[in-house]
Design a protein that fits this description.
Layout lengths: L7 E4 L7 E4 L1 H5 L1 H15 L6 E5 L2 H13 L2 E5 L9 E8 L2 E8 L8 E9 L3 H13 L2 E10 L14 E6 L1
Parallel strand pairs: 3-4, 3-7, 7-8, 8-9
Antiparallel strand pairs: 1-2, 5-6
Helix pairs in contact: 2-3
């Protein structure tokens, strides 16, 4: 199935000059959604992953079904103020501003094998912040996986020496 046909490009969102890649039509399509999850599952089944770490919010839509399918737990990385327990935080830059990410301080243990999942890799800001959080917890990141990679923004440079998996490249 050609997943790209379910991804729409929205110019000037959330600010002028940004071309937003909207995956919600893909999520809505039953066959498309299943095909997308199957791509991730095929890539990570049998790799002895303890946890899938999903980045808020669209990383949850891929990460939770992936975790279930490969027999792993799911750990959310959230935007500020959403986690109720003791947490760690990391700031990062976006294409269009700055933000912060948080994870529960007890979410992972030293040596846990994880794959980090998000919908899109752009500048690599959220990826790098998430990796810093996981490093602080002592987790071993096996890979960073996204559905879409915006190659011109060179997000891979923000996560050097890491297996970066992307299925659609613009």
């Amino acid at each position: 199935m050609e997943l790209e046909r379910h991804i729409r490009a929205i110019p000037d969102f959330p600010i002028p000059g940004i071309l937003f890649r909207d995956i919600t039509p893909l999520l809505k399509d039953k066959q498309g959604f299943a095909a997308m999850i199957d791509l991730f599952v095929e890539r990570f089944k049998g790799r002895h992953i303890d946890y899938v770490v999903g980045i808020e919010a669209r990383g949850y839509m891929i990460g939770a079904p992936l975790a279930y399918a490969i027999g792993a737990g799911f750990v959310p990385v959230r935007k500020p103020g959403k986690l109720p327990y003791s947490k760690l935080a990391e700031n990062y830059a976006l294409e269009y501003g700055t933000n912060s990410l948080e994870i529960h301080a007890d979410a992972l243990d030293q040596g846990d094998r994880v794959v980090v999942v998000d919908d899109l890799l752009a500048t690599g800001g959220t990826a790098a912040a998430t990796l810093r959080l996981l490093e602080r917890l002592g987790a071993h990141v096996e890979a960073f996986a996204v559905l879409v990679e915006l190659e011109a923004l060179n997000g891979r440079a923000a996560v050097p020496n890491l297996d970066v998996v992307s299925f659609i490249k613009y």
